[in-house]
Amino acid sequence: MKAQLRAVPAAGSGAAAKPATVAPHFLTVPEVAALLRCRPRTIYTMVSQRRIPFRKAGRLLRFEAGEIDAWTKDCAER
């Protein structure tokens, strides 16, 4: 599950500068559990209840760091 990055032209190349795309940073279940200061079992429960944003890569669960950050901020505002 590799994201491809586009090359950014050099400053003096004459081509219009395009913003570089940054690949999303994905976290594992133990990493999200450490970030949220809970047990991995809690993360699995929240996934089964669809209370936390996640992705599946085959049988593996992955969490996009930006989505988890936004999700925690949204929960804090409630």
Verbal overview:
With 78 residues, the protein is α+β, with helices and mostly antiparallel strands. The protein is 38% helix and 13% strand. It has a 3-stranded antiparallel beta sheet with strand order 1-3-2. Strand 2 (55-57) and strand 3 form a beta hairpin. Helix 1 packs across helix 2. It starts with 25 loop residues before the first strand and ends with a helix. The relative contact order is 0.17.
Q: What does this entry show, briefly?
A:
With 78 residues, the chain is an alpha+beta fold. Helix content is 38%, strand content 13%.
Give the topology.
Layout: E1 26-27, H1 29-36, H2 40-48, E2 55-57, E3 60-64, H3 65-77
Antiparallel strand pairs: 1-3, 2-3
